[in-house]
Amino acid sequence: MRFTSYIKDKLFCIVTYVAFFLVFWLMMLAFRSPAPLIRAFALLLFFLAAANLSWDYLRKRKFYQEFQYNLEYLDKKYLVLETIEKPGFYEGQIWHGAMYEINKSMLEHLKRYEESIRDFKEYIELWVHEVKLPIASLLLMCHNNRGALEKKYVEQIRRVDGYTDQVLYYVRSEHSENDYLIKEVALADLVRKTALKNKDDLLENEVEFSVEHVDVSVITDAKWMEFILNQLVNNSMKYKKKEDSSVIRIFARQDADKTVLHVWDNGVGIAAGDLPQVCKKAFTGENGRTHAKSTGMGLFIVKRLCTKLGHGIEINSRAGEYTDVAITFTKNDYYFRD
Amino acid sequence: MKQILIVEDDAAISAELTELLKNAGYQAAVLTDFAQAAETIAAAGADLLLLDINLPGLNGELLLREIRKTSQMPVIMVTSRTSEADEVLSMSYGADDYITKPYNPTILLLRIANIFKRIDAASEGTAALHYRDVLVNPAKGTLVRGTEELLLTKNEMIIFQLLLENQERIVSRDALMTDLWDNNEFINDNALTVNISRLRAKLSEFGYPDAIETRKKQGYVLVR
Hints:
The complex is a heterodimer of chains A (about 350) and B (about 220). Chain A is α+β, with helices and mostly antiparallel strands and about 350 residues long. Chain A has helices spanning about 5-10, 10-30, 35-75, 90-145, 150-175, 185-205, 220-240, 285-290, 300-310, 335; strands at about 185, 210, 215-220, 245-255, 260-265, 310-320, 320-330. Among the domains of chain A are: about 5-85, no CATH class; about 185-335, Heat Shock Protein 90 (2-Layer Sandwich). Chain A is elongated, with a radius of gyration of 35 Å. Chain B has two domains: about 5-120, Rossmann fold; about 130-220, Orthogonal Bundle (Arc Repressor Mutant, subunit A). Chain B has eight helices and 13 strands. In chain B, the strands form four sheets. In chain B, strands 2-1-3-6-7 form a five-stranded parallel β-sheet, sandwiched between helices. A four-stranded antiparallel β-sheet of chain B has the order 8-9-10-11, with no helix packed on it. In chain B, strands 4-5 form a two-stranded antiparallel sheet. In chain B, a hairpin with a 2-residue loop joins strand 8 (about 130) and strand 9. The interface of A and B includes residues 135, 136, 138, 141 and 178 of A.
């Protein structure tokens, strides 16, 4: 609260004081009052006006300065009302009361919104669990009634399963609360599960699947990481070159303080211009136009999950040559301390 | 014949599962009444339990804890719940394995076979696997007959073992492939063909020329 601005704001009041003083002075002159009396009254009036304005300025300044300071330095600005005292002046009280009401109604609104998101998330989780049952039945039926079409059916059912997983993990990556559990996980187990899940596809497309140096433990959520690996392998297969023989290599490098897992393929790669954007939501880029159709959600979800789990993710690629996704797991000494 | 009890409320799945298990040479029964489930399961005397988590009016994890109070029967949790917390909880309550739906049926069968293998090995002291007059030693990767010894590679041993466990039954190429991949051998179709013909050649040299028969478009059979 600046003094000059305050004075400007009170200009009408000051003008009234001055006008009153002039009228008073002219009247005193008209009644031929003695000069010392006029001066004394003039001085008295001036001090009264000054005292009045200063007192008003000071009490407002005390309140507004605290308020503005708190507002500036508060991380969650909507909580500012909790940090200040109720003002002593009338306008302030009206304002405070109004702010309180506004805040309250906004919080209620927000609560409804949060509840509806939570309900929606719970419903999606439930729905995914439900839809997994017919998917499981279909896979069993295919297995029990083997025929010429079995492989084709299984492939399509697996696609449905993949998309339902994507919905589940999208919701989890956006609104995760207690649905992940970080513990020591054998990387080889995750790779094996991913390999088995994609076995038919890899064999059908004659993709060489090579796994090296994955006999390490990392600290992560096994289910989330499995989804991430599965997405990366799916991407590698989706964007493989049509002419050359395809290779997917999964390997881990160990450093003193971290383990880096690489998923490398010799596929079509990512254009340099697209590279910084591939993890953005709904980004499809050049590959989305020229190759397999893409929703642009896979890598977005992968990146979100990695961030939530505290893993680094880095994508390197050269168009037409290779793509390498590196996931960094930090080795947390604290975790292993008893 | 091993008996497997299925605790599952989805009728379609339990019907298909029953067929799958019967085709694989197990006896399968389905638990349909979930009231007094723990007692019914204990009374059924099955060799293995396939247990779902989401059951009507009942939680599979709590049921497992109930069962563990009286019995050490092997239990595989089969569920559509995909959170790590559920798996950790189930394992801490004493589940032997945890498989999420939808699963690869071949893998489910492999897991079941693994558990039975482990139990048999534990009860007989050592895993005494025999084929005709040959002692099979999977850990060493050898077939032993008297003083003669035949050395198999890791892949050949995996293939031979699966054929042996399903002796006289057709084992599909897909099942062999799944077993190999489940053992971190991510080989392709050609390599499988090569491995099988090498195994055949070795067995034939060892005196069993017709041990492995090919069934066109179906798979392989290890004959007695």
